[in-house]
Specification:
Order of helices and strands: HHHHHHH
Number of domains: 1
Radius of gyration: 21 Å
Number of helices: 7
Shape: elongated
Strand content: under 5%
CATH class: Mainly Alpha
Bound molecules: protoporphyrin IX containing FE
CATH topology: Fumarate Reductase Cytochrome B subunit
Helix content: over 70%
Length: 194
């Protein structure tokens, strides 16, 4: 039997929205607001208007178009850091520790699900630490090479976050329609499911 406390449910849904928002900003940065695509587009349209600009100037224009959107990545990033601290405090509640009890008695599938949760929490902690280090790399006096390595780690871990979200959402929808009817709604209304 599982019963999700009100604060845990609120935490889960805000956290889900923030992570989806972060993934959304990455999607926009890599597609519609990609500086490479847009700088080429700007250059070619300006050429049609008999205005010529250098590729460097086109890059400045394209990144400044992207910049207000990317500010959301940083704002949502701060929110994620706060949510992870909140999650630590929730571990001391019944709801916050429910999935991590009686590990040995679980089926192999449930063991993997639990390990997946531990994995995503670890990944998100590193994402928050690396993201904050990138944001404050100047104040923290991080060298160019270290900043570059941190960015590579941050970018690579993005793949794990994406993988978790796809597997998690697919997984709970399948569970809901097969043998765990009510699993999703119980994360909404909080009542017990068998
Ligand atoms: C939007 C669709 C989503 C639905 C319907 C959904 C539903 C659920 C449900 C039903 C559970 C409980 C499952 C169980 O007890 O094993 C759960 C847990 C969890 N969800 Fe989601 N979720 C969604 C999105 C997300 C997203 C985007 C994240 C971001 C990483 C996320 C992170 C988690 C985590 C970490 C847990 C484990 C909570 C714990 O520590 O016990 N969920 N979700
Ligand atoms: C779910 C969590 C997160 C995901 C999936 C994610 C994903 C990414 C990705 C893929 C990039 C590389 C973008 C590119 O160069 O094409 C990036 C860059 C960055 N992220 Fe995150 N991020 C997350 C959390 C955070 C957090 C918590 C912060 C801190 C506030 C943050 C701050 C940054 C910064 C400063 C950059 C470098 C941007 C630049 O070089 O212009 N991120 N992120």
């Amino acid at each position: 039997m599982k019963k999700w406390r009100f604060d845990f449910r609120i935490w889960h849904w805000i956290h889900a929205a923030v992570v989806l928002g972060l993934l959304g900003t990455v999607f926009l940065r890599k597609t519609f607001l990609s500086w490479k695509t847009n700088s080429e587009l700007l250059s070619s349209k300006l050429t049609e208007m008999d205005i010529s600009i250098t590729s460097q100037q086109a890059k400045v224009l394209a990144t400044s178009i992207r910049s207000p959107m990317w500010e959301w990545h940083i704002l949502l990033g701060y929110a994620l850091a706060v949510l992870l601290l909140w999650r630590i405090t929730l571990f001391f509640t019944k709801s916050g520790s429910a999935n991590y009890k009686n590990f040995k008695a679980k089926t192999l599938h449930k063991k993997l699900v639990t390990l997946g949760y531990i994995g995503i929490y670890g990944t998100l902690f590193i994402m928050a630490l690396s993201g904050l280090s990138l944001t404050f790399h100047e104040s923290l006096a991080l060298g160019k090479e270290l900043t570059h390595t941190i960015k590579e780690v941050h970018e690579w871990l993005f793949n794990l976050v994406l993988l978790f979200v796809v597997l998690h959402v697919t997984g709970v929808v399948i569970a809901e329609t097969r043998d765990e009817a009510g699993i999703i709604s119980s994360m909404i209304h909080g009542k017990n499911i068998a």
